[in-house]
Specification:
The chain is of the alpha/beta class and 271 residues long. It is built from ten helices and 14 strands. The longest helix is centred in the last third of the chain and has 14 residues, at 205-218. The relative contact order is 0.16. Bound molecules: adenosine-5'-diphosphate (ADP) and magnesium ion.
């Protein structure tokens, strides 16, 4: 964190602006979505969606199929342009003015549902490639790993519990291990905000538990937004839960609070 003093606004008066890696989080909020609407052929996938994520928060997003969860992530990452609304990273980065790669470069990482690792490369090489992803191909082809970079990869292997598998081809990993490797590939680029779409789908109970431990450990340093259906997993994450329904926020609070909300029960059971 590099806090800066920006000013003077009024004569000789300075305003304290807390920063996290170049992102102004002076209102503690890392992500603002305000009144976001997206329609597909007249159908409103997002309908005036308003959502704030605090810096360092671990937020879970739930909601029935078709609620707009994936579309929300598409808007945040620049894949889909909303018809209306506002989307900011911190106080000053207008996401709706940036392209997909520009948004990624500003520190928003996204994990899609299916693992997308380089199967013909080793686990170590996958992390190495991810670390060099923001360099030019020319630079990365001729750059050799210095000891600092090797240490960073080794630390990431420990974090994602794949130290023993470093030399294995990624294609030979279990489904859960591939998911962790892809999470490691995102983390090694040091994102400010990490979006994860159904990260534990298809994982064993043991892998799911390990993943919950990992996310809890990452919160604080990173901000995480996790879309999941697995309620036991969400309970384990312990953070605030947002329920999406028909493209808007239906309820928000602890898992127990939203689970006992009659409107949420209606949406989940009333169909
Ligand atoms: N590219 C698209 N074209 C048309 N309809 C879409 C498109 N993407 C999503 N939708 C529709 O928008 C709604 C929300 O989808 P989605 O965001 O994927 O929901 P969720 O991830 O919560 O299941 C769904 O009804 C879906 O069919
Ligand atoms: Mg989805």
């Amino acid at each position: 964190m590099n806090d800066v003093y920006r000013g003077p606004l009024l004569e000789a008066e300075y305003v304290y602006v807390p920063m996290r890696d170049g992102i102004d989080v002076s209102h503690r909020v890392i992500l603002y979505l305000e009144d976001i609407s997206v329609s597909f052929d007249g159908f409103k996938a997002l309908n005036n969606l308003t959502l704030h994520i605090d810096a360092g928060e671990l937020r879970s997003i739930i909601g029935p199929n078709g609620a707009g969860k994936t579309t929300m992530m598409d808007v945040i990452t620049g894949k889909t342009r909303p018809d209306s609304g506002t989307a900011f990273l911190g106080q000053s980065i207008d996401l709706l003015r940036l392209t997909e790669p520009e948004i990624a470069a500003r520190g928003i990482g996204r994990k899609f549902q299916k693992p997308t690792v380089f199967e013909q490369h080793t686990v170590f090489e996958n992390l190495e490639l991810a670390m060099k992803a923001n360099k030019s191909p020319w630079a990365s082809m001729f750059s050799r790993l210095d000891s600092e970079a090797r240490d960073k990869i080794a630390a990431m292997l420990t974090t994602i519990r794949l130290s023993e598998e470093a030399k294995r081809l990624a294609g030979l990993l279990s489904h859960g291990q591939k998911q962790w490797l892809e999470i490691g590939m995102l983390l090694i680029q040091e994102p400010q905000l990490l979006l994860l779409d159904e990260p534990v789908a298809g994982m064993t109970d043991e892998e799911t538990e390990r993943t919950a431990e990992l996310f809890v450990a990452l919160a604080g340093k990173h901000s995480l937004v996790v879309v999941e259906h697995d309620m036991a997993f969400i309970k384990r994450l312990g953070g605030k839960v947002t329920v999406l329904h028909e493209g808007a926020v239906l309820a928000e609070g602890s898992l127990d609070t939203v689970r006992n909300d009659p409107r949420v029960i209606e949406v989940y059971l009333g169909r």
